[in-house]
Design goal:
One of its GO terms (molecular function) is peptidase activity. This protein is α/β, with parallel strands linked by helices. It folds into 2 domains: 49 residues; 221 residues, 3-Layer(aba) Sandwich (Rossmann fold), CATH 3.40.50.2300. It has 7 helices and 13 strands. Helix 3 packs parallel to helix 4.
Length: 295
C-alpha cells in the first residue's frame, strides 16, 4: 500500500472511495475522490481498489453527477429559448437575431488541488468565466482581501476540506471549535461580505463536508453547507455557482431547484433567496468585450 492508492474503509462498508494522501505511523491520511472529506484510518482497515468504476459507491456517485450535469445543461437550454422569445416579444427582434450573454464571473478558492482542477474543467465546460486558486483554508481570508478588488467577481466560492472533529459530544455540534476548517471559512466569508455588503451584489457559496451551516450563513454567505452535517460532493459548490452565473439578474435563484439539483441535496446544502448574475445584451458587439461573454 502506497501514497496515491485508491482505497475504501472496511469498517464503513466501503461507502466512500479515497486516495491515500500520506502515512502517519500505522495510519493513512485519506482524501475522498468524490466527496470533500479528509479522514484518517488504520492501514489494516483499508482495502485497495483496483478498478474504481466497479464499486457501488462510485457507480452511485457517477449516476448522480450525470443527472446533475443534465439538469444544468437543460436549464441553460431553457433559458436561451426564453431569451429568444422575450426578445421577439418585448423588442420586436427577429428570433434569429444574435444576442449575447454575460454570465456571472466566479472566483473559486479551494483547499484541494484535485477538486480545484475538476471545478475549473466544469466551469469551462459550462462556459462560465472563472478564476481559480488552490490555497490552504487558513490562507483564504487574506487571499480574498487581495483578490476581490483585482478579479471583481460576481460569485465567490470558498471551499476545501472540513468536518466535525472526532469524539466531540453532541452538545458541542454548534461550537465552531468542533470543526476542522469552519472557522477559516467563516473568516473568509466575513472578508468577502465586508468587500460587498449586499447579498445580491456578491453571491457567496461557502463550506465543505459537515461545515457549520448556520455560522456561514450568519457570516454573510448566500449558500452554505452542511445543514445535516453530511458529506457533500466535490462539485456541489460549483453547481450552485454555475446556477447563479446563469440565472438572470431580474430573477431569484430557485432555491428548491438549485438545492435539489445538487448531488448531496437539502441535507448537504442550503441558502437564502438571491438574485442571479446573468445578463443578456443586444445587438452582438463587433469587438471583443473585456468581460467574457457567450455569443
Amino acid at each position: 500500500m502506497k501514497q496515491g492508492d485508491l482505497v475504501v474503509r472496511n469498517s464503513y462498508g466501503g461507502d466512500v472511495l479515497f486516495r491515500i494522501e500520506s502515512f502517519r505511523h500505522a495510519a493513512a491520511v485519506l482524501k475522498g475522490t468524490d466527496y470533500r472529506l479528509l479522514a484518517d484510518s488504520p492501514i489494516d482497515d483499508l482495502s485497495i481498489v483496483r478498478d474504481p468504476e466497479v464499486t457501488n459507491a462510485t457507480k452511485q456517485v457517477r449516476v448522480r453527477v450525470s443527472e446533475s450535469m443534465q439538469r444544468m445543461v437543460q436549464h441553460q437550454q431553457r433559458q436561451q429559448q426564453a431569451h429568444k422569445i422575450e426578445l421577439a416579444e418585448r423588442f420586436n427582434v427577429h428570433h434569429n437575431q444574435s444576442y449575447f450573454e454575460v454570465p456571472g464571473k466566479v472566483l473559486h478558492l479551494d483547499g484541494d488541488g484535485n477538486y480545484m482542477k475538476k471545478s475549473m474543467q466544469l466551469y469551462a465546460q459550462m462556459r462560465v468565466p472563472a478564476y481559480g486558486v488552490h490555497a490552504n483554508e487558513a490562507q483564504m481570508p487574506e487571499l480574498l482581501y487581495r483578490l476581490l478588488p483585482q478579479v471583481k467577481p460576481d460569485i465567490v466560492v470558498i471551499t476545501g476540506h472540513d468536518g466535525v472533529l472526532k469524539n466531540r459530544p453532541k452538545e458541542e455540534i454548534y461550537n465552531l471549535s468542533s470543526y476542522k476548517n469552519s472557522q477559516n471559512f467563516v473568516n473568509a466569508v466575513q472578508v468577502a461580505r465586508e468587500y460587498e455588503k449586499t447579498r445580491d451584489g456578491l453571491i457567496i457559496v461557502a463550506g465543505a463536508c459537515q461545515s457549520h451551516f448556520e455560522a456561514l450563513l450568519h457570516a454573510g454567505a448566500n449558500f452554505a453547507s452542511s445543514p445535516g452535517r453530511i458529506l457533500i460532493h466535490a462539485l456541489d459548490p460549483v453547481y450552485i455557482a454555475i446556477k447563479a452565473s446563469y440565472t438572470s439578474v431580474r430573477e431569484t435563484i430557485n432555491l428548491v431547484e438549485v438545492i435539489n439539483g445538487t448531488i448531496s441535496g437539502v441535507d448537504g446544502v442550503g441558502g437564502i433567496e438571491t438574485l442571479g448574475r446573468h445578463r443578456i445584451g443586444l445587438p452582438r458587439p463587433k469587438v471583443q468585450m473585456s468581460q467574457p461573454v457567450r455569443i
